[in-house]
Design a protein that fits this description.
The complex is a heterodimer of chains A (272) and B (316).
Chain A (H helix, E strand, L loop, with lengths): L2 H9 L2 H15 L3 E9 L4 H20 L1 E8 L10 E5 L2 H10 L5 E3 L15 E3 L4 H14 L6 E4 L10 H12 L5 H20 L4 H10 L23 E5 L2 E6 L21
Parallel strand pairs in A: 1-2, 1-3, 3-4, 4-5
Antiparallel strand pairs in A: 6-7, 7-8
Helix pairs in contact in A: 3-7, 7-8
Chain B lengths: L1 H14 L8 E6 L4 E6 L4 E7 L4 E6 L6 E5 L4 E6 L4 E7 L4 E6 L5 E5 L4 E6 L4 E7 L4 E6 L5 E6 L4 E6 L4 E7 L4 E6 L5 E6 L4 E6 L4 E7 L10 E3 L5 E5 L5 E6 L5 E6 L4 E6 L5 E6 L4 E6 L4 E7 L4 E7 L1
Antiparallel strand pairs in B: 1-2, 1-28, 2-3, 4-5, 5-6, 6-7, 8-9, 9-10, 10-11, 12-13, 13-14, 14-15, 16-17, 17-18, 18-19, 20-21, 21-22, 22-23, 24-25, 25-26, 26-27
The chains are: A alpha/beta (272), B mainly beta (316).
Amino acid sequence: MPLRFLKSSAARGATGCLLIFSWWLAAAAAPLEVKLAYIGAINSSAHQGALQGLEEAQQQGDFLGQHYTLVELAAVADPIDASAVIAALPAVELVAVAAAHPTLPVFNVTRPDDALRTQCKTNLLHVIPNTKTLVDALAQWRVAHPEAKTVQAQAWHADFEKYSASQLNNRYREKFKQPMDDAAWAGWAAVKLLSDLAAREQSADPAVLLKALREHLAFDGQKGVTMSFRDNGQLRQPVLLVDHGKVVGEAPVRGVVEVEDLDSLGQISCAK
Amino acid sequence: MRKSFALSLLLCGLCAQAGAAPPRVFVTNESGNSVSVIDIQANKVTSTIPVGKRPRGIGLAPDGREIYVAVSGENMIKVIDPETLKVTRSFPSGADPETFAVHPNGNLYISNEENAKASVYNPHTGKLIAEIKVGIEPEGVAISPDGTRAIVTSESTNMLHVIAIPEHKIVMNILVGARPRAATFSADGKIAYATSEISGEVKKVEVASGKIIGRVPLADDKAKPKDILVSRDGKRVFVAGGRANRVFVLDEKTLDILTEIPVGNRVWGLALTRDGKRLYTTDGASNQVSVIDTAANKVIAIVPVGAQPWGLTIRE
């Protein structure tokens, strides 16, 4: 403990000193080391999103005593010493990584394949929405707006502003000088939701984190609704409707289904 | 230190009576870019003051002589004279000021949403006194009645940061539910209550230890609560239920929901009269303020205001 600190806290009186000292002790105790692995293309938007998430996780960890690192792995076959993996991989390799490390949370941040959502691997968690989720969102939108011909469904949009989305978009744009796209959002979200649970559980144990991810996630991904993982590993989430580059709405679509009914989008169960 | 705070509290209590104007409620209209002024006796808007782009947080000087408005779209605090109802001056307040609390000594504690900081300003000189690094997207600010602690909530890192005053150092970080939006202290400053928008709950926290000593889910976690206040007698806690479109009244000790008062849509802001008999709410999606009789737990008047009312403060 530096002498300067002792002197200044003495001046604050006993109570203040005790308080500050106990905080200082807590913060100065060896931080919980949380290692995350990333497999996929370097400098891709998924990778950048994960780095954005890492920076924000550390901003929380600085206050609560966690230290985060992100290791970029070159190949799927590499041994993994981490609490979780963020994977931007083709479907076959994604499944292979999850199968090779059955107790490790593996986050799919790029692949929309519906087939991946019917395999129901316990540790394979899909942060990016699947094709059927996007198709269902479009169908809901067309019920309310039959004239809409050019609308697309997306996980994210760089101009989305609601629910503090603009703050996230601003942070990402400032760091990478690029608009945040779907994969960048998913990479960011994977790191953020994992890190918040690591802080709550005070644990870097993959098995503990996997259980927490499955059972008590409390995260909105800057999309305004509590998200959670379905049994089939898909993250329940709203999606955005975009027309000619502009966000025109959100699904679940108000007036067509209950706005809170995230299960109106995509597969619910493991069955095909 | 404590003595001087107590003294300033006492003095302010006296000088707040000074105004000649009738009791009024000042309401920021986030989309209306204005402040609506409600006459408490008539429950009617008697003036609308244009203040600039996206006004959100609003507060009253301890001596009652000035109203402060965080004009988020202009990165400014604007000062309103509550007698003449004119904007008299303004000062820059750091990036994207969302909301703030007024310290008993008159200083403003502001959350700067865009740059993960809380900043302390002297509103008379416009000078920055301190900057405190906090978590991502700081939002709610509360100051303990004795002025020795502030709480700032960080929405995207889910914490309550307890800040010692006047040191302006963080002494405790408390992890709470997802997207904490507002906090308030008990009268003795020992307990804090905080709302979390995404986990749809209120947490009760022992400030000194940082221990969470109570939790209540609102509307099956679906409420998206925002403002929170303790009743003047300290026995009840009022919570603006956001999308649940009601005010929850909780028992201060147990956090049991005593009753739910239906108000307008997306209720965010809360303010109590000095005698605690009336509670005013901003119902953002209904462009109205609801007036609640706190003894009967009933809405007794609805006052149409500007577009998207956000926050409010009462000058009596």
